[in-house]
Structures are given as C-alpha cells and as structure tokens.
Design brief:
Helix 9 packs across helix 11 (about 290-304). The two termini are about 35 Å apart. The strands form four sheets. The chain has a six-stranded parallel beta sheet, sandwiched between helices. A two-stranded parallel ribbon has the order 6-9. The protein has a two-stranded parallel sheet with strand order 7-12. The protein is globular, with a radius of gyration of 19 Å. By secondary structure, the protein is α/β, with parallel strands linked by helices. The chain is about 45% helix and about 15% strand. Helix 1 (about 15-25) links the parallel strand 1 (about 5-10) and strand 2 (about 30-35). The longest helix is centred in the first third of the chain and has 21 residues, at about 75-95.
C-alpha cells in the first residue's frame, strides 16, 4: 500500500472506525480520513459522490454507520437497515466510479444463520434463517457483501469483504445501546460508582461470543488490503469464545464490583454461538495478540 495514498474509513464514532484510524496513522499512513470525523453522512448520495469526485481515495474501508447490541437493534431497526444499506450503496458505487484501488467491506458474524455449524466457515453465509433480534442489521450487512461481490464480478472492481468477530476496545461505547462488552462494562462501572447490590444482565448467560480487540482487527484489515483479493468473504476472529456468564464474571472481577449478577431470562439471548473459522486469514500470516482480560482492563482503565 502507498503510505501517501488517501485511506477513507467509513463508520460511526466507535471502536471499529476509531481503531482503524489510530492504527493506520500509527503505521505512518499520512492521509487518513474518517467519515464521522468529517461530519460526512454517507447515507446521502450526493454528499458521497461529491467527496469521491474531489478526493478520489486510494483505499476505502467500509464499516457500519449504525450498529449496536440487542437493545439497539430492537429500538432502531430502521436506522440499522436504511442507514447501513444507503451508505454501502453510495460508497461502493462511488469507489468504483472514481477508481479507488481497493475497497474492504466489513461485516459481522450476524451474517451467519442462527442455527449454524460451529465454527462457521465462509461458505455458510445465507444458508439458513438469521437471528430475529438483529435481522435488520444482519440483512443490511449481507446485502453489502453481495454488492461488493457484484461490483467485483461485473466491473472487476477490487472490492473484498471480511466478517469480523465482535470488536471491542478502548473506543467501545459503554452504554445500554452498545455491544455486549461495552454495555456490561457500563453497567458494572455504574454499580461500583453507585454502590448498588446487583447488576442485571440480559438473557440466561449461556450464549457464547467471540471477541477481537480493535488493535488486532485493524492489523488484520491492513493485511487484507495488502494480500487478499478473492471475491469470497474472509473471517477475522481469534479462534475461541466465552459465555456471556463468564464474560460478566470476568468484568465483575476486573471492575472490583462486589455484588451479585442477576440474569434476566425474560430478555432474549440472541444466537447461542457465533464462533468463526478463521483458518484462511491465519494462513495469510495474521494472528490475534491481545488477550481478552488485558483488553477489558484497558477499557476500564481508560473510562475510569
């Protein structure tokens, strides 16, 4: 990759876009732009077209402009669907139109069926019904993968797709609408601050999730931009998962919370397991480096 070439990162303010910008700037790339830092609404076609026509990015990393956990997906299904699909359509078309060298589209493990053999391989996408609690978001991400593939097939545009495990890091949103690690950290921090006796966690605690730190995710994206050119999506995960119950216990330990954890079984669990088979990217020479406990400690230390 040309370190002077413009890298345009599309995404809302949060762990993915901010981890990517921090990483590439730290690697010596001198021209890195992020849509949310610019105030560019990529769901508006004319704005995206004008930006690409003037700036002509060499590389594009296209992540979500709206995402969140089960609560956010239930509260904002229109945003999850429309904003992401509109952004994907506008950005992928403009990147092709104005001759971007390479586009990397980022999807999440929710693109896999709810009932899926574990670990999940790339050929299992769209082979079964999806998890209902995230259907608006997951269908938008599937559409993005298919659009990138269509441009590659018909126009020979160098667009690739990666399916990420759940990304977390110091930029994670620590509130009720965030993904599970950020949401739990926010709950335990608030409980410690207020001296409450218990923390409530949605669901049974039995579902298992795979988490990847933002630093590892960004390094994987760099590798893919340099070495991966296939039309098929590629998984990016650490190769192991943890139950929500054990995750809550881990965050409880690190945060210093002394009370109890109450699992609200009246709330949905979501998909029971989403472990990615990341053999393909590991064969390219990538490996996750940040341990989950270390990564969670970094978030807690930053947000104290």
């Amino acid at each position: 990759m040309d370190k002077k070439g413009l890298i345009f990162i599309v995404g809302h303010k949060g762990v993915i876009a901010d981890s990517l910008s921090k990483y590439f700037r730290g690697q010596g790339f001198t021209n890195v732009k992020v849509s949310h830092e610019m105030g560019l609404d990529t769901s508006i076609q004319v704005s995206v077209y004008e930006y690409f026509s003037k700036s002509r990015p060499a590389y594009v990393v296209l992540s979500s402009v709206k995402s969140g956990g089960i609560q956010a997906n239930q509260d904002f299904p229109t945003d999850m669907s429309y904003q992401n699909m509109a952004s994907d359509t506008n950005v992928i078309y403009s990147a092709w139109k104005f001759e971007t060298k390479k586009l990397l589209y980022l999807a999440s493990s929710c693109v896999y069926p709810k009932e899926c053999k574990q670990p999940m391989t790339e050929d299992m996408i769209l082979t079964g019904a999806m998890e209902p609690t995230s259907i608006a978001y997951s269908t938008a991400k599937c559409a993005g993968i298919k659009l990138a593939q269509a441009f590659k097939k018909q126009h020979k545009f160098n667009a690739i797709s990666a399916v990420l495990a759940t990304v977390y890091g110091e930029e994670s949103e620590v509130d009720r609408n965030g993904h599970v690690i950020g949401s739990l950290i926010g709950k335990f921090q608030e409980a410690v601050k207020m001296g409450t006796a218990s923390v409530q966690v949605w669901g049974s605690g039995n579902p298992r999730r795979e988490f990847i730190h933002g630093e590892d995710m960004a390094a994987a994206c760099h590798l893919l931009l340099e070495k991966y050119d296939e039309i098929d999506p590629i998984n990016v995960g650490v190769g192991e998962d943890i139950s929500i119950k054990d995750l809550a216990l881990l965050i409880k330990e690190i945060s210093g919370f002394k009370g109890s954890i109450d699992f609200d079984v009246t709330k949905p669990d979501g998909t029971m397991r989403k472990l990615l088979d990341s053999t393909k990217i590991k064969n390219l020479g990538w490996k996750a480096k940040v341990d989950l406990k270390v990564g969670i400690s970094k978030i807690l230390n930053k947000s104290v």
